[in-house]
Amino acid sequence: MALSIHVNGGTEQKQFQEPVENPEFDYSQRGQWLRAAVLGANDGLVSVSSLLMGVGSVKQDVKAMVLAGFAGLVAGACSMAIGEFVSVYTQRDVEMAQMKRDGEKRSPVVDENDRRMEKKERLPSPGLAAGASALAFSVGAVLPLLAAAFIRDHKVRMAVVVVVASVALMVFGVVGALLGGAPVAKSGGRVLVGGWIAMGILLLGLLG
Predict the structure, then answer these.
(1) Is 101 within the bounds of a domain?
(2) CA 142 – CA 137 distance, rounded (Å)
């Protein structure tokens, strides 16, 4: 965009360039921790909500519900972190071995080491995935716990757990879509419906 400036009776043309937009962001780089975070949050929310409703269906004591939910939170967070770490580390080992085989097949070139280092940086991080999974599970699990802990009436408590779980499922789906550049409505609806189905199956299993 050109701007004319009058200086001592003359006109001086100065060229001002509009800021150039950054190249399109590669959302796939977020996949290694975003997948673990969304999975962990949904798992924590669904499993602990189902556990609270299952315990509340047979025992109306709020302390029993909260203790069962807290035990599920701790056990689930540890299980998710360890499982994610082992699975991602296995994936990393497989990809590293494949990179080594591909490097041996190629003829030696100057930038081979640089290419290999760049590929290593793009590999998933087991520690990052495990931490994201455990933290997300805890965040998802603590929401229904807080909803149940401070409500005396049993029926109201059960209803609030269901409402909080449903709203949180929708929020998790929307946040995951925004971070990953995916359609918001489709992602939120998919997570909500999937969470309802999972909670129904888990609740039937606990009561059966």
Answers:
(1) no
(2) 9
Pull the structure tokens for residue 2.
Answer: 């050109």
Tens digits of residue pLDDT in 77-115: 999 999 989 988 888 888 888 877 776 666 555 455 556
Find the domain containing 141 and state its range. Answer: 33-96+119-207
* CA 27 – CA 34 distance, rounded (Å): 10
Q: How far apart are CA 193 and CA 99, in angstroms?
A: 40
Please report whether residue 188 resides in a domain.
yes
Answer whether residue 181 is part of any domain: yes
Q: Is 26 helix (H, G, I), strand (E, B) or coil?
A: coil
Quote the number of domains for the chain.
Answer: 1
Give me the pLDDT at residue 206, please.
66
Residue type, 59: K
d(CA 195, CA 202): 10
| Residue 64 lies inside a defined structural domain of this protein | yes
Judge whether 51 and 38 are in contact, CB under 8 Å. Answer: no
**CB of 140 closer than 8 Å to CB of 73:** no
